[in-house]
Amino acid sequence: MENALFNNYKEKVVPVLQEKFGIKNIMAVPRIQKVVINMGVGRAISDIKILESAMKDLRTITGQQPVMTRSKKAISNFKLREDLPIGCKVTLRRVRMYEFLERFISVCLPRIRDFNGVSRKSFDYQGNYSIGISDQSIFPEVDTGKLAHSQGMDITIVFNRGPKEHTFELLSLLGMPFRKN
Question: Least crowded by CB within 10 Å, which of 51, 72, 123, 131?
Answer without folding.
Answer: 72
